[in-house]
Every structure is written in C-alpha cells, then in structure tokens.
Design goal:
This protein is an alpha+beta fold. Helix content is 32%, strand content 27%. Strands 1-5-6-3-2-4 form a six-stranded antiparallel β-sheet, sandwiched between helices. The chain is globular and about 50 Å long.
C-alpha cells in the first residue's frame, strides 16, 4: 500500500544537474549557493499540480537564465555575456530558458507525490504576483545553488517547495 502526499519533494542536486546537463549537452556543476536577491531581472518559474495548486518555484538570476538559454541554443558565449552586461534577456535566450524550466517539471514528478507541471514563467521585468514573490523569499524547504555550465559560466538557481 502506498500513501500519496500532497506536497512535491525537494529534488536532489543530482536530479537538477542531470536534467539540465542532459538538455544542454554540457557539463553542469552545482555548488552551495545563496538565494538570489529579489530583482526584476530574475526569472521565476511556477509549477502547479493538476488541481492548479502552486507546488514549487524555480528562481534563476539573469546570469543563470542567459547561460541556460545560451547553452541550450548553442548561442556563442559572447552574445550571452553581452546580454548579461546589458541586463537583458533576449527573446531567444528567454524561450530556451523556458524550455529547460519546462522540462525541469520532471524533477518534481516522483511516485506518491502530486503530478506537477510548469504553469507560468515570469521573465525579467514581469510583474510577479505577491504570493509568488513571498514564496520565492521563503526560508526553509528550498535548495539554493550556484550553477556552472561548462563553456558558459555560472549563475544562481533556487528551487523552493511550497
């Protein structure tokens, strides 16, 4: 007999690394990090259950979003670095980042836990609802890492479980 819980589990670093590494086709390293400061340039992905209940967030800073997007699209690093320098996330990098964050829903979908899918991705400059912003700043059931993609550099990624 199995018991289903109503909350998604906090994924392991291993599953986060393997998911991103498998998508971008480059080595990915994760090390201890700190929560990204709340900035309008952050990207926030909201994951919900089949009942549309917020289950988890992934928050990446602009650097991480650009590097994920650039590595997925094999966009030259110089272009990625220029977008970071300009504090912008061009549409192609944004769309590639969305694809990676969409596939990252798989890290939450484990047996005996609710099915979770990407519901919304708030790109830099988007108005983030207050409840999502509050959850992103929650201390507790979260993983904060420095993510480094071989050939592209690093950024900050946080996974927050509601």
């Amino acid at each position: 007999m199995s018991v289903e819980t109503e909350q998604s589990p906090l994924p392991s670093r291993h599953s986060v690394r393997n998911t991103i590494e498998g998508l971008v086709g480059r080595d990915v390293d994760l090390s201890d990090g700190v929560p990204p400061p709340a900035k309008s340039t952050n990207v926030v992905a909201v994951y919900v259950t089949d009942q549309l209940k917020t289950s988890a967030l992934v928050v990446v800073d602009l650097e991480c979003a650009a590097r994920i997007g650039g590595s997925l699209g094999m966009i030259p690093r110089g272009v990625v670095d220029e977008s970071i320098k300009a504090r912008e996330l061009p549409k192609d990098l944004e769309e590639n980042c969305y694809e990676v964050l969409n596939v990252m829903a798989s890290i939450f979908n484990v047996p005996n836990h609710p099915h979770v899918r990407l519901y919304e991705m708030y790109a830099p400059g988007s108005a983030i609802p207050a409840d999502i912003a509050a959850l992103a700043a929650t201390v507790g059931n979260r993983m904060d890492v420095k993510l480094k993609i071989s050939g592209y550099g690093d950024g900050t990624l946080s996974v927050v479980i509601k």
